[in-house]
Amino acid sequence: MPTLHFCLIFIITISTMASVSSASLKVNFYKTSCPSAEAIVNKAVNKAVSRNPGMAAGLIRMHFHDCFVRGCDASVLLDSTLGNPAEKENIANNPSLRGYEVIDEAKTKLEAQCPQTVSCADIIAFAARDSAYKVGGINYKVESGRRDGRVSLIDEPTQNLPPPIFDAKQLEDNFARKGLSLDEMVTLSGAHSIGVSHCSSFSTRLYTFNATHPQDPSMDPNFAKELKSKCLPPPSSGNGPDPTVPLDVLTPNKLDNKYYKDLKNHHGLLTSDQTLLSSSAIAGIVRNNARNDAAWANKFAPAMVKMGSIDVLTGKQGEVRKNCRVVN
C-alpha cells in the first residue's frame, strides 16, 4: 500500500514541522556580536509604550501573529510586492496590527551599530518581552538567534491564526498544532488583558447570535447593554464605522489576571474569550488564573518563550534582513 505509506510519512513530516524547536536558540545570543542589541530594542519599546500604552498590546500580538504563521521568522513584517500580497494585508492584520514603526526604529538603530547582525524576528521577540514588562512587570530571558524568512503570503494568516469566533475545542486544536498545551493556550489568552477590539469582531454576539437568541446568552446582559451603546448594529452595507472597545474593562492598560475575572463575570468580549468557560477542564484553569495573579504571570513568561520558538529558522537558514520590510 504505497499510497498509505506515503500519506503516513507526509503526516508525520508535517506534524514534526509544526513542533516547537528551540534547540538552536540561546539567551544572550548577541553578547559578543552586538552587546547592546536588547537595550536598543528596549529603549524603542519604552518610548513607544510611554507615549501610547496600547502599543504594548500591539507588539505582543505581533509576536503571536508572526510565530503562528511560518514560525517566528518576521514574515509578518514584509511588505507586499508586485503580484504577491503579504501577510500584513490579511484581514487578521490589516488594519488592526500595530507596532511596525517601533520595530523599524529599533532596526534602524541596530543597523547603524551592528550592521546585518540582529534579525527582525529577534527584534519582535525582544519587543514583546519588553512590552510585557513595561505594562505588567512580567520579565523573562528571551532566547535568540532566529533568522528572518523570505516568504510572506496573504492567505496564510487565515489558515493559521485562530479567529475571534473559535470555540474552546477549535482553540485547543489550533494551539496544539503549534506544539502548545491546553494550559499554555489559556495562559497566553491572558494577553487579552490589554489592547482593544473592533466592534465588528464581536457584534454578532450582540445582535445576531442565533435564531433563538439574538444576543449571546453567555454574555452578562448589563455588559451587553453597555457594549451596544458603543457598538451600533452593523449596517447592511458593511461600510459603517467600526469603533474599538477595551478587551479587559477592569484594567485595560495593565497586563494582569483581570482578564480571567472578566470571564468569570461573563464580560469576555470575543467568542474565543468567553468560550474558555465552556468546558470544565479549561474553566478550572481560568478560575486558578483568576485567583492568583503571580501564579498566572509565572506561567505566562515560559509560555511566551515556548511560543517564541515555534518553527524558527536558525544557523544558515533564512537571512538577517537589512530592512525588516523587504528581503535582502
Describe it:
The protein is mainly alpha-helical and 328 residues long. The protein has helices spanning 2-17, 37-51, 54-67, 100-113, 120-136, 156-160, 168-176, 182-189, 203-207, 221-230, 258-264, 271-274, 280-291, 293-307, and strands at residues 26-27, 143-144, 196-198, 244-246. It has 14 helices and 4 strands. The strands form 2 sheets. Strands 1-2 form a two-stranded antiparallel sheet. It has a two-stranded antiparallel ribbon with strand order 3-4. The longest helix has 17 residues, at 120-136. The chain is globular and about 60 Å long. It starts with a helix and ends in a 21-residue tail after the last helix. Mean pLDDT is 91; it is low at 2-19.
TL;DR of this structure?
With 328 residues, the chain is mainly α.
Largest sheet: 2 strands, antiparallel
Low-confidence region ranges: 2-19
Q: Mean of the pLDDT scores? A: 91
Strand line-up in the sheet with most strands? 1-2
Give me the Rg, rounded: 20 Å
Helical content, roughly? 40-55%
The proportion of residues in beta strands is under 5%
Count of beta strands? 4
Number of helices: 14
In angstroms, what separates the terminal alpha carbons?
45 Å
Structural class: mainly alpha
Shape: globular
H-E order: HEHHHHEHHHEHHEHHHH
Based on the model shown, name its key terms.
46% helix; two-stranded antiparallel sheet; mainly alpha; disordered N terminus; 328 residues; 4 strands; 14 helices
Q: How do the strands and helices of this protein lay out in sequence?
A:
Blueprint: H1 2-17, E1 26-27, H2 37-51, H3 54-67, H4 100-113, H5 120-136, E2 143-144, H6 156-160, H7 168-176, H8 182-189, E3 196-198, H9 203-207, H10 221-230, E4 244-246, H11 258-264, H12 271-274, H13 280-291, H14 293-307
